[in-house]
Here is the input.
Amino acid sequence: MYFRMTKPRPIIKGTTYLLTRRCARREFLLTPSKEVAQIFTYCLGVAAERHEMVIHAVCVLSNHYHLVATDPKGNLPKFMQWMNEFIAKALNAHYGRSESFWAPGSYNAVKLVEANDVARKIVYTLNNPVAAGLVERHEHWPGLCTNPESMLGAQWSVERPTIYFGRRSKLPKYATVTFAALPEVDERRFVRDVREMLTVEEVAQGEERK
Here is the structure.
Protein backbone atom coordinates (compact mmCIF):
# COMPACT_ATOMS: atom_id res chain seq x y z
CA MET A 1 0.00 0.00 0.00
CA TYR A 2 1.35 3.40 -0.98
CA PHE A 3 0.56 6.72 0.65
CA ARG A 4 0.73 9.99 -1.21
CA MET A 5 2.67 12.51 0.83
CA THR A 6 1.97 16.21 0.70
CA LYS A 7 4.89 18.10 -0.81
CA PRO A 8 6.69 20.27 1.74
CA ARG A 9 5.78 23.95 1.54
CA PRO A 10 8.80 25.97 0.34
CA ILE A 11 9.64 28.64 2.92
CA ILE A 12 11.73 31.67 1.92
CA LYS A 13 12.83 34.14 4.56
CA GLY A 14 11.38 37.60 4.17
CA THR A 15 8.29 36.50 2.24
CA THR A 16 4.94 38.19 2.79
CA TYR A 17 1.82 35.99 2.73
CA LEU A 18 -1.94 36.12 2.68
CA LEU A 19 -2.84 33.38 5.18
CA THR A 20 -6.29 31.82 5.46
CA ARG A 21 -7.71 29.10 7.71
CA ARG A 22 -11.32 27.87 7.71
CA CYS A 23 -13.32 26.21 10.46
CA ALA A 24 -14.38 22.58 10.12
CA ARG A 25 -17.52 22.18 8.01
CA ARG A 26 -17.62 26.00 7.78
CA GLU A 27 -19.15 26.13 11.24
CA PHE A 28 -19.43 29.55 12.89
CA LEU A 29 -16.81 28.81 15.54
CA LEU A 30 -15.24 32.28 15.25
CA THR A 31 -18.48 34.24 15.59
CA PRO A 32 -17.64 37.60 17.21
CA SER A 33 -17.64 37.53 21.02
CA LYS A 34 -15.35 38.78 23.77
CA GLU A 35 -14.02 35.23 24.29
CA VAL A 36 -13.20 34.74 20.61
CA ALA A 37 -11.53 38.16 20.46
CA GLN A 38 -9.42 37.54 23.57
CA ILE A 39 -8.35 34.02 22.62
CA PHE A 40 -7.56 34.85 19.00
CA THR A 41 -5.64 38.03 19.88
CA TYR A 42 -3.68 36.30 22.64
CA CYS A 43 -2.68 33.34 20.46
CA LEU A 44 -1.76 35.60 17.54
CA GLY A 45 0.31 37.84 19.81
CA VAL A 46 2.24 35.01 21.48
CA ALA A 47 2.83 33.16 18.21
CA ALA A 48 3.99 36.30 16.38
CA GLU A 49 6.45 37.20 19.15
CA ARG A 50 7.81 33.66 19.48
CA HIS A 51 8.37 33.26 15.77
CA GLU A 52 9.24 36.86 14.90
CA MET A 53 6.42 37.43 12.45
CA VAL A 54 5.47 40.93 11.27
CA ILE A 55 1.69 41.37 11.19
CA HIS A 56 0.15 43.77 8.67
CA ALA A 57 -3.58 43.08 8.71
CA VAL A 58 -6.12 40.60 10.06
CA CYS A 59 -9.84 40.02 9.78
CA VAL A 60 -11.65 37.25 11.66
CA LEU A 61 -15.02 36.28 10.24
CA SER A 62 -17.42 33.78 11.76
CA ASN A 63 -16.04 30.70 10.02
CA HIS A 64 -12.57 31.69 8.79
CA TYR A 65 -9.85 34.29 9.11
CA HIS A 66 -7.49 36.14 6.81
CA LEU A 67 -4.08 37.36 7.91
CA VAL A 68 -1.40 39.27 5.99
CA ALA A 69 2.05 38.84 7.51
CA THR A 70 5.75 38.88 6.68
CA ASP A 71 8.03 36.03 7.75
CA PRO A 72 11.56 37.47 8.23
CA LYS A 73 13.08 34.30 9.72
CA GLY A 74 11.38 31.52 7.77
CA ASN A 75 9.23 30.49 10.74
CA LEU A 76 5.83 30.44 9.00
CA PRO A 77 5.00 26.73 9.62
CA LYS A 78 5.86 26.94 13.33
CA PHE A 79 3.96 30.20 13.70
CA MET A 80 0.81 28.85 12.06
CA GLN A 81 1.00 25.52 13.89
CA TRP A 82 1.28 27.16 17.31
CA MET A 83 -1.38 29.79 16.73
CA ASN A 84 -3.94 27.47 15.14
CA GLU A 85 -3.35 24.73 17.71
CA PHE A 86 -3.97 26.94 20.72
CA ILE A 87 -6.88 28.83 19.17
CA ALA A 88 -8.52 25.45 18.53
CA LYS A 89 -7.81 24.07 22.02
CA ALA A 90 -8.99 27.20 23.83
CA LEU A 91 -12.15 27.72 21.78
CA ASN A 92 -13.05 24.04 21.93
CA ALA A 93 -12.77 24.33 25.71
CA HIS A 94 -14.93 27.46 25.60
CA TYR A 95 -17.63 25.72 23.55
CA GLY A 96 -17.38 22.42 25.40
CA ARG A 97 -16.62 20.50 22.24
CA SER A 98 -13.91 18.01 21.30
CA GLU A 99 -14.29 17.71 17.54
CA SER A 100 -11.87 19.06 14.94
CA PHE A 101 -11.88 22.83 14.99
CA TRP A 102 -10.22 23.55 11.65
CA ALA A 103 -11.12 22.17 8.22
CA PRO A 104 -9.06 19.15 7.09
CA GLY A 105 -5.71 19.89 5.53
CA SER A 106 -3.39 22.77 6.11
CA TYR A 107 -3.82 26.50 6.02
CA ASN A 108 -3.73 28.37 2.70
CA ALA A 109 -0.70 30.60 2.09
CA VAL A 110 -0.44 32.89 -0.93
CA LYS A 111 2.97 34.45 -1.53
CA LEU A 112 2.91 38.17 -2.21
CA VAL A 113 5.86 39.43 -4.22
CA GLU A 114 5.32 43.12 -4.94
CA ALA A 115 4.10 45.90 -2.64
CA ASN A 116 1.06 46.30 -4.90
CA ASP A 117 0.23 42.62 -4.38
CA VAL A 118 0.41 43.11 -0.62
CA ALA A 119 -1.78 46.21 -0.79
CA ARG A 120 -4.44 44.39 -2.82
CA LYS A 121 -4.52 41.45 -0.45
CA ILE A 122 -4.76 43.72 2.58
CA VAL A 123 -7.76 45.36 0.90
CA TYR A 124 -9.19 41.90 0.21
CA THR A 125 -8.68 40.94 3.85
CA LEU A 126 -10.25 44.05 5.36
CA ASN A 127 -13.07 44.15 2.83
CA ASN A 128 -14.13 40.56 3.50
CA PRO A 129 -17.14 41.38 5.74
CA VAL A 130 -18.35 43.92 3.16
CA ALA A 131 -17.89 41.53 0.24
CA ALA A 132 -19.91 38.93 2.16
CA GLY A 133 -22.77 41.42 2.53
CA LEU A 134 -22.51 41.47 6.31
CA VAL A 135 -21.77 45.18 6.80
CA GLU A 136 -21.53 48.33 4.68
CA ARG A 137 -18.09 49.34 5.94
CA HIS A 138 -15.34 47.11 7.25
CA GLU A 139 -15.18 49.21 10.44
CA HIS A 140 -18.74 48.11 11.22
CA TRP A 141 -17.77 44.43 11.55
CA PRO A 142 -18.11 43.55 15.28
CA GLY A 143 -15.35 40.96 15.18
CA LEU A 144 -11.58 41.43 14.99
CA CYS A 145 -10.62 43.51 11.97
CA THR A 146 -7.83 46.02 11.55
CA ASN A 147 -7.96 49.10 9.35
CA PRO A 148 -5.28 50.53 7.04
CA GLU A 149 -4.13 53.00 9.68
CA SER A 150 -3.41 50.12 12.06
CA MET A 151 -0.19 49.55 10.10
CA LEU A 152 1.24 52.75 11.56
CA GLY A 153 2.04 50.90 14.80
CA ALA A 154 -1.33 50.07 16.35
CA GLN A 155 -1.25 47.50 19.17
CA TRP A 156 -3.79 45.01 20.49
CA SER A 157 -2.97 43.93 24.05
CA VAL A 158 -4.88 41.29 26.02
CA GLU A 159 -4.52 39.33 29.21
CA ARG A 160 -3.99 35.59 29.00
CA PRO A 161 -7.43 33.91 28.82
CA THR A 162 -8.47 31.79 31.78
CA ILE A 163 -10.29 29.50 29.35
CA TYR A 164 -8.06 26.43 28.72
CA PHE A 165 -4.79 28.11 29.76
CA GLY A 166 -5.47 28.28 33.49
CA ARG A 167 -3.74 30.30 36.19
CA ARG A 168 -0.68 28.03 36.33
CA SER A 169 0.11 28.38 32.64
CA LYS A 170 3.74 29.21 31.88
CA LEU A 171 2.71 31.31 28.91
CA PRO A 172 2.97 35.12 29.19
CA LYS A 173 0.43 36.89 31.39
CA TYR A 174 -0.20 39.40 28.59
CA ALA A 175 0.24 39.33 24.83
CA THR A 176 0.47 42.22 22.37
CA VAL A 177 0.00 42.23 18.61
CA THR A 178 1.86 45.13 17.00
CA PHE A 179 0.89 45.97 13.43
CA ALA A 180 3.30 47.41 10.87
CA ALA A 181 3.46 48.38 7.22
CA LEU A 182 5.86 46.72 4.80
CA PRO A 183 9.55 47.29 5.41
CA GLU A 184 11.36 49.48 2.90
CA VAL A 185 8.26 51.40 1.80
CA ASP A 186 6.95 54.85 2.63
CA GLU A 187 4.61 53.80 5.45
CA ARG A 188 2.18 56.70 5.25
CA ARG A 189 1.94 56.57 1.49
CA PHE A 190 1.38 52.81 1.58
CA VAL A 191 -1.36 53.20 4.20
CA ARG A 192 -2.96 56.02 2.22
CA ASP A 193 -2.98 53.91 -0.95
CA VAL A 194 -4.57 50.97 0.89
CA ARG A 195 -7.22 53.25 2.40
CA GLU A 196 -8.08 54.70 -1.03
CA MET A 197 -8.32 51.24 -2.62
CA LEU A 198 -10.48 49.99 0.25
CA THR A 199 -12.85 52.95 -0.03
CA VAL A 200 -13.26 52.33 -3.77
CA GLU A 201 -14.15 48.68 -3.08
CA GLU A 202 -16.67 49.55 -0.38
CA VAL A 203 -18.39 52.17 -2.53
CA ALA A 204 -18.55 49.82 -5.53
CA GLN A 205 -20.07 47.02 -3.47
CA GLY A 206 -22.53 49.43 -1.94
CA GLU A 207 -23.72 50.35 -5.42
CA GLU A 208 -24.04 46.66 -6.31
CA ARG A 209 -26.23 46.04 -3.27
CA LYS A 210 -28.52 48.91 -4.28
Q: What stands out?
A: The helical segments are 34-50, 76-95, 115-126, 128-131, 187-209.
